[in-house]
Each structure stands twice: as structure tokens, then as C-alpha cells.
Amino acid sequence: MSGTSADGIDVAIVDIQKNKVDVLAFDTFAYPPAIRKKVLEMGEQKLCTPGDISSLNFLLGEIFADAVIKLCKKSRIALDTIDLIGSHGQTIYHNPHGLKGKIRSTFQIAEPSIIAHRTGITTVADFRPKDIAAGGQGAPLVPFADYLLFAHKTKNRIIQNIGGIANLTFLPAGGKIKDVIAFDTGPGNMIIDRIVSIISGGKITFDKGGKIAAKGKVNLKMLDEMLKCPYFRRKPPKTTGREEFGKIFCDGFYKRAKNKSMSAEDIIATATAFTAASIADAYKKFLPKTPDEIILCGGGAKNKTLVNMLGQKTKGKILSTDDFGINSDAKEAVSFAMLAWAAIKGIKNNVPSATGARSAEILGKIILV
Question: CA 125, 243, 5, 185 torsion: positive or negative?
Fold first, then answer.
């Protein structure tokens, strides 16, 4: 899969036996800069033609297939021993609310027919539309995997992904899958990454380890202003993306900060605090119980400043999926492998309590070879 940050393609090779999942290999294959630029521009709804979308769809299919083949070679796992590929693809549009008078819809590209044909492996893709057809948000989809992997009899757990967008899965102690609560809390790394890129003139695309933010001071007045964004008042189920927290939002954040004569370090520290505070506020507003454990995954799990800020604002022991044998960067890709596994077995793999769908459904379009 590739997330909203469009850093590249996460590929995980996993062995699934009932509820036991072993990660055999994982790597991320960065998009070439020109391709990443196209993906981000399309996600920001820059002017493009149907031909542009079609071409990028097929090109990403080739790139996704190549990433699978490369990981197999690198990890010395024979391609023909893989039974199934699950591909989330690359989201370029997500409007599950029908905002601005538009019909509810979502659009992921990276043509699965290309992936299946190039690899010779049956491919399951395009998971989100079926959930939207059933009245859901088309997201979040990873709660299905979160429940199978992390549900506990006596502990309330939050699985907190911090990618471009941050999303949580709340697993109540001893609960069933119908009791799961999940939603996007708001921006994850998206605003931090954009501001770092602006300040560095594109030379740096993220704040590695949160080192820049650690040197800055949070502007509390500006933080309070940003937390008044309407999305944070909206009740779950809810999802968001570049449509709400993309380039326009980020550039507005940066402009306001510059008008306050804030230093580069202070701007990045405030953006980091914004992510941490929006996550923590979501716990307080929308979850029925305090978590015993907060299990982090995604790129933000490696931002020490962000993790420390989150720890100061929340209760519960902070862990990582690495503590459970699943690479925190690989967690999302592993989840879509599990969604594909369920689809091929005819197992309903959305979580209506998380997406708002009227019914449980089998998500994913199957390309047989």
C-alpha cells in the first residue's frame, strides 16, 4: 500500500494461519520524485484530465508489481510461493461525506490487473467502494486486522496509526468485533511533513526522529486556534484526508505562523503538538473508556518528540506494534494482506461500527490469474 504521504510503497510478505500472522519480509520502495509529485498534485485535485488519471493508474500498477517482485528477490522468497496479493493502492480522492454537494465517493489507483498479470498472482484490491456502497465511510478498514491481532480479554487497547493521517482503533477489553470503535483523529505527519518541506526548500521531507521539533517551543495560542477546526467536533464514524488537511490547510498554517514571527523550529514544534493534541482530544471526546495500552504504528511512531507529546497528554502505557512482532512501518501493509485473505475466503471484512456501514460486507475486487 501507499498512504496519504505518498512516500512510497510498503510491501509486506506474510504467512497467515487462522489468527496467527508471521511477517516474513518487509520493505518500503520510494516513489521516484516525479511520480510522487504527480500523486500529490492529483490528491490535491490540481487540474488533470481523465487521460492523466488513467495513465497514472496503470503506471502505479507497474510500480506496485515491481515492488512485490523486488522484495521477493531481496528476501529470497520465490514469487510462485505467494498465493495472494492484497493491494490498497494509492488514494487520490476520498469524499465519504458528500461534501460541497458532491456524491459520496472514493478513488484508489494502481491498476490491480497490471499487478496480477505482471506477478502471476491473484490480486485483491479496491477495498473501500463496497463499504461506501453499504452506507459507510469506506474507512477505516484496518480495524478488522487490529481486532484479530490485538484484542485482549482484560486490557482496553488503542491501536494508533500515525501516517499522513492519524487513525485509531479502540478495542475494549473482552469485546467482540461489533464493539470496536475506529476513526481518523485528524492529521498525522501530513502537516509536519509539508512544513518541513517548505522550510527546507524541498531538501528535507520529514522531521526525522522529531529532532527539529525538539528544538522549538510550542505556540499555545496558535495551537488552540488550530484545534477549533470543525473536523475535531464531528462525531465518529468519520474519516478525513488531503481534502481537509492537505496543501491549502498546511500552507495556511504556515502563513499564520510566519505572521506571528515564529521561528522554523517553533512552527514545526507547534505542528507536532497539533497532531499530538488532536489525537489525545479524540480519546477524551469519543472513547468510552481510558486505554490501558496505546500501541503505535506508522511513521509517526518513530518521531520521538511526537510520541513524548502524546504520552504527556494521555493515560495508558505507550507501546509499538514492534513489541508484538510486527514492524510499525509494516502494520498497514500487513492489514491489507489480512483483508485480502478474508475476501478470498468469503469472510466479511469491514467493521460497520467503525465505518458506519449499514451491514457487514466482503470488501475487495478479485483479479484471478
Answer: negative
Kindly report, residue by residue over 32-79, the tens digit of the pLDDT.
999 999 999 998 888 899 999 999 999 999 999 999 999 999 999 999
Cβ-contact 367, 114 below 8 angstroms: no
Domains of the chain: 8-139+330-367 (3.30.420.40), 143-324 (3.30.420.40)
pLDDT digit string, tens, across residues 264-312? 999 999 999 999 999 999 999 999 999 999 999 999 999 999 999 999 9
State the Cα–Cα distance between residues 272 and 168, nearest whole angstrom: 17
pLDDT digits (tens, 9 = 90+) for 97-122: 887 778 999 999 999 999 999 999 99
Write b or e for each residue in 7-37: b if 16 or more Cβ atoms lie within 10 A of its Cβ, otherwise e.
Answer: bbbbbbbbebeeeebebeebbbbebeeebbe
Radius of gyration for the chain, computed over Cα atoms and rounded to the nearest angstrom: 20
Contact 364, 191 (CB under 8 A): no
Peptide bond before residue 236 is cis, with ω within 30 degrees of 0: no
Whole-model pTM?
0.91
Using an 8 Å Cβ cutoff, are 189 and 5 in contact?
A: yes
Q: Is residue 66 packed enough to be buried (19+ CB in 10 Å), middle (13-18) or exposed (0-12)?
A: middle
